[in-house]
Specification:
Elements (H helix, E strand, L loop, with lengths): L3 H11 L4 H20 L1 H5 L2 H5 L4 E10 L5 E12 L5 E7 L5 H17 L6 E6 L8 H15 L8 E4 L6 H15 L19 H19 L8 E4 L4 H12 L3 E7 L2 E4 L7 H12 L5 H8 L2 E4 L10 E3 L9 H9 L4 E3 L8 H9 L4 E2 L1 H4 L1 H16 L5 H23 L8 H20 L2
Helix pairs in contact: 1-2, 2-5, 2-17, 5-17, 6-7, 8-9, 8-15, 8-16, 12-13, 15-16, 16-17
The structure holds (2Z)-2-iminopentanedioic acid.
Length: 445
């Protein structure tokens, strides 16, 4: 029999100074501990202990030259977390906050998320503490080349298939994959998020945001509600925020905020127009501050050094980074009448914040369920690469839609409480855990 407290003491002792990893593990353990205690086969096979221990962690030095001719040194990682269900799969994050603990939390979450997609993918994550902000295009290119020179030794289409994450978008994937192809002399689908011209899938750039809104649609539908006329707060300004804002707007909602590290903007008319996002994408590619210039150009309100959670909205969509929404934010949102909260960033809410939503019976979707559309379309990109074909926009979008509805249905099945409220956190954790655990049992040790 497992006890949550002793289990977590063990995790903290064995993984010192990795608070994000502790947090991610604890959120899952809380949901699944009863399932494990009721199924002795899981204890016999030490599934809990095995599932929180990465298969391996690769750490390497990245040496590159900046535009002034100075040598720069960063640290690169790939956490190959769990390949029970398929090749390791998950993004690369380039952000100054990246540590081994960050990538372990992300790799652990990714393993469970990928299982929810029902596609054959294991979980992994990688990246670097390299900060792309303010870097020139040639610096980005040189960094990506140096990073892949090391990483190329450990990945491949049947082994480990990286993709993008924060700080790694279409441009970086191109530079990384270009170097992979050069070194390995093979054009295989060893990465996803590629440009459509060289093996990428249609819809991949917008898939995370689109998928999250399909998930949101399913949540609302369950309550005989629709997105029509809803006011939405989005945080972030990257690919994920973009896809979410575009789809929310297409479905009749008005997205009134976006945010960057310097603050948020409030745009009463809605940020989800192609013109506004084209402008933001341009700013983003030049690695400049996005939010303040946007406010100036389109006459919106710029609120410096604050997060958008103080705005009264019907739906909150954290789309930036882990722990971007804390207890005080949750209290403000609930006091202002928020009806749904859908995490689009990975672990966007602190545990106390999501507990507060659940306690107040606000439908709350965790990232591993709601943002699985991104990696799901990555899985579809792998299928297309393996078959040497490409599907149309409609074909990919339709498959994405079906996958998100299936994930929603599985959360409802495992997460409906006695009072009828759906605890999506519990639902997503139990569904994904069981799938990986059962396969681990079948595969032996
Ligand atoms: O967090 C995520 O699911 C991603 N960054 C996407 C991973 C992928 O392999 O497409």
């Amino acid at each position: 029999m497992y006890n949550l407290e002793t289990l977590m003491e063990d995790v903290e002792r064995k993984n010192p100074a990795q608070p994000e990893f502790h947090q991610a593990v604890k959120e899952v353990m809380r949901s699944v501990i009863d399932v494990v205690n009721e199924n002795p086969v899981y204890e016999k096979h030490k599934i809990l202990e095995r599932m929180i221990e990465p298969d391996r962690i690769i750490s390497f030095r990245v040496e590159w030259e900046d535009d002034a001719g100075n040598l720069q040194v960063n640290r690169g990682y790939r956490v190959q977390f769990n390949n029970t269900l398929g090749p390791y799969k998950g993004g690369l994050r380039f952000h100054s906050s990246v540590t081994i603990g960050t990538l372990k939390f992300l790799g652990f979450e990714q393993t469970l998320k990928n299982s929810l997609t029902t596609l054959p993918m294991g979980g992994g994550k990688g990246g670097s503490d390299f900060n792309p902000r303010g870097k020139s295009d040639t610096e980005i290119l040189r960094f990506c080349r140096a990073f892949m020179t090391e990483l190329s030794k450990y990945i491949g289409p049947t082994v480990d298939v990286p993709a993008g994450d924060i700080g790694v978008g279409a441009r970086e994937i191109g530079y990384l994959y270009g170097q992979y192809k050069r070194i390995r002399n093979e054009h295989t689908g060893a990465m996803t998020g590629k440009g459509v011209g060289y093996g990428g899938s249609l819809i991949r750039p917008e898939a995370t945001g689109f998928g999250a809104l399909y998930f949101a649609q399913a949540m609302l539908q369950r309550k005989s509600d629709t997105l029509e006329g809803k006011r939405v707060a989005v945080s972030g300004f990257g690919n994920v925020a973009w896809g979410a804002a575009m789809k929310a707007s297409q479905l009749g909602a008005t997205v009134v905020t976006i945010s960057g590290p310097d603050g948020y903007i409030y745009d009463e008319e809605g940020v989800g127009t192609p013109e506004k996002w084209a402008y933001m994408n341009l700013l983003r590619l030049s690695n400049n501050d996005v939010v303040a210039p946007y406010a100036q150009k389109f006459g919106a309100v710029f609120v410096p050094n604050k997060k958008p959670w103080e705005v009264a909205v019907d739906i909150a969509l954290p789309c930036a980074i882990q722990n971007e929404l804390g207890l005080e934010d949750a209290k403000m949102l609930v006091a202002n009448g928020v009806e749904y909260v859908i995490e689009v960033s990975n672990m966007g809410c602190r545990t106390e914040a999501l507990d507060y939503f659940i306690e107040h019976r606000i439908p709350f979707a965790p990232g591993k369920a709601a943002n699985a559309g991104g990696v799901a379309v990555s899985g579809l990109e792998m299928s297309q690469n393996a078959m040497h074909i490409s599907w149309s926009t409609d074909e990919v979008d339709e498959k994405l839609h079906q996958i998100m509805e299936k994930i929603h249905a599985s959360c409802v099945k495992e997460g409906t409480l006695d009072d009828g409220y759906v605890d999506y956190v519990k639902g997503a954790n139990i569904t994904s855990f069981k799938k990986v655990a059962d396969a681990m049992v079948q595969l032996g040790y």
